[in-house]
Structures are given as C-alpha cells and as structure tokens.
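Hi P.,

Sorry for the delay on this. The queue was packed all week, but I finally got your sequence through. Input first:
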Amino acid sequence: ARGRLHWQVIERVLGRWIDEHPREDWLLRPLLAETPVADVLGWTRAGTPIVVLGRMDLLAATRDLAGYWVVDHKTSSQIDDKWVMEWRLKPSISRYIWLTQRQLDKPVLGAVLNGIELPYTGYPDGKCKAHGVTHFECTHSHANWRIETTTRTEEVLEGWRVTQFATAERLEALRVATADRPGDAPDAWLHRMRGVAQNGLHAGLCGGSYGRMCWLAGWCESGRPPDASWLQRNLAHAPWRPFDWTKPITPLRDRV
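Then the structure:
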C-alpha cells in the first residue's frame, strides 16, 4: 500500500526534516542514541525489585556540557497542540528523566519532544490540488513538525514514583493470585483469572476505544471460559523484547 507509512514517504519526510534542521544549528550535543537504560526504583512489600527500563531515543547535553536533555522522537498523523499536550504529560518522559538523573552527576534540564508528522493527505493516487501531483508524491510537502521542551519538577517525579510502586504492587498481587500452586489441576490458574477485575472497563480500554484493543477482550466477551485451548487458539506467545533483557545494561555514567 502506498499510504503515508510507505517507506518512500517516510524517507522524503525525514529528508526534508534533515534539510530544514542542519546539525550546525542544533543547540544540543548528541551523546547516546537508541540506548537501553535501566535501574531499580525500589522493592515491593514482598521484596520483589521494581526495575525501570527502556530504550532512550537520544541523550544529549548542552554545548558546554553543563546539563543533559532527554530527546524523544515521535511520529504522528497530526502534530498539533493536542498532540504536544498529550506527550508533555507522558509517563515515559518521567521515566527517562528519572533514570538519567539517577545515573549521571549533572542536572537533567528536561526533555525535548521532536514530533514529526506523517500526514494523511487523501487517496494515494488522487491528485493534490496544491501541487498538481498525486498525494503519494507530495505527502512530504504537507508534513509538519514541532520541537517542544518539557520539564519534571521533583514533585511531579515523586508522583510518578508513587504511581509506579502502586502499579507494581497491583501486578505482583495479580501474579500471586493466579500463580500455579502445589497440587493444582493444569487449568486451575484460569479459574482464578476469572476473578480478576476488568480494570479497563471504565477506561475505555477493553473494546478498543482510543485506538487501543485488549487482546483478551474476546475471552472476557465469551465469559472467560476456563479453557487453555481458547487462549492457544486466539493468542500468540510473543513477549515484547526491544533488547536483550538477559545481558547487563551498563549504567549511563560509564557510557557518557
């Protein structure tokens, strides 16, 4: 399909971004790109470590190396004020700022949001009135971008930290409640899963609101049958592993 996510469209949009943002105009000095970072936030009441980790798009520093900035590259079909506000408040930004503060000895001044638009301009083979060529050929000409900054106060980071602890406790309670027990029948954990609260019901996350669809929606709709074969037929075991979790992740202080 020759839509807005076609590789040629992306190549043209990024090429235009690079042309309009020459490196000599950058106010920051790039240090580490696409770098995994991890640290221990704390421990649950049961003693399980709460590990915060992710892959940072870019760690940059001021030109005089007096402080650091976290840079997050994002693409969207529309970059506007609503998009900026959504990403300014994202917990992922808090996570990367907290990790950077914890592992480096100079202040983290904030985060840079580099929003690049991959717009939907119409049917790919339709003719653009503005440029006289197909939409596929001129999508990059309609692209917009925003470079915004955001910060995190100590109070905001503490609120993020409290939320992470609460989430970790809830997930550990779920793991304990559904874990295999001595003498269990093979599908006993599924019977216990039927008693787990559907927290997504009131957030619009079960049926696909806001573009998000729970993979277990069909199971809940079917009455949560305690039948492992249903899960095997409808789900694929595919853990999210953006990098190799089994290898130690070197702290930022040893890489900068």
